[in-house]
Amino acid sequence: MHIGLLIFVIILIIGLAYFIVFTHDCRNKKCSHMIDPPDKDWPIEAKIERFILMAKEIDGGTTWTITLLAAFIIPFPLIWYVNDRLPTFKEWFYSTFIIFIITYFAVLWMTTNFFRPNILQLQDSLNDLITCD
User: Fold this and answer.
1) Are 23 and 90 in contact (CB under 8 A)?
2) In Å, how far are 27, 34, 38, 120, 123 from 52, measured between CA atoms?
3) Is 75 left (phi over 0), alpha (psi -120 to 50) or beta?
4) Cα–Cα dist 66/120, whole Å
5) What pLDDT was estimated at residue 32?
6) How far is CA 55 from CA 8, 73, 94, 119, 133, in A?
7) What pTM does this model have?
8) CA 68 – CA 100 distance, rounded (Å)
9) Which of 72, 70, 82 has its CA nearest to residue 107?
10) 43 near 123, Cβ under 8 Å?
11) What is the C-alpha to C-alpha distance for residues 60 and 81, in angstroms, rounded to an integer?
């Protein structure tokens, strides 16, 4: 049973990792989380407006997929260390749920309290540059 759970979780991890890479990899294709930087020959006002758009997209990525991926993986070494065995499905399920909730809200709190105020300050400063004559 424990090996079946391990194989099931490995398949989940591979599927989730593929989903994350497919939706957030902007190197080879156009994706919804990327704003192209301005060209060098653009006027200053257009460059600043593009920088404002880029600043708005900084926190546009989905953090729930990364925290879910971590929550899938962490119970195995954790329960192995504590109990010296692989987890049962019930232990893995509850551990994954608890770890996901804790990590998701920790990242959300950090984003809200630290990253978002800095992004808003950057946007305000860029807007001030546009309105300066």
Assistant:
1) no
2) 21, 13, 11, 10, 6
3) alpha
4) 24
5) 63
6) 39, 32, 37, 6, 23
7) 0.70
8) 6
9) 70
10) no
11) 36
**Cα–Cα dist 2/84, whole Å:** 13
Instruction: Report which of 95, 97, 99 is spatially closest to residue 107, judged by C-alpha positions.
Output: 99
The whole-angstrom distance between residue 127's C-alpha and the CA centroid of its chain comes to 27
Hey, CA dihedral for 64, 107, 119, 38, is it positive or negative? negative
Extract the tokens encoding 62.
């989905």
Token reading at 28? 């080879």
pLDDT band at residue 101 under the 50/70/90 scheme = very high
What is the per-residue pLDDT for 95? 93
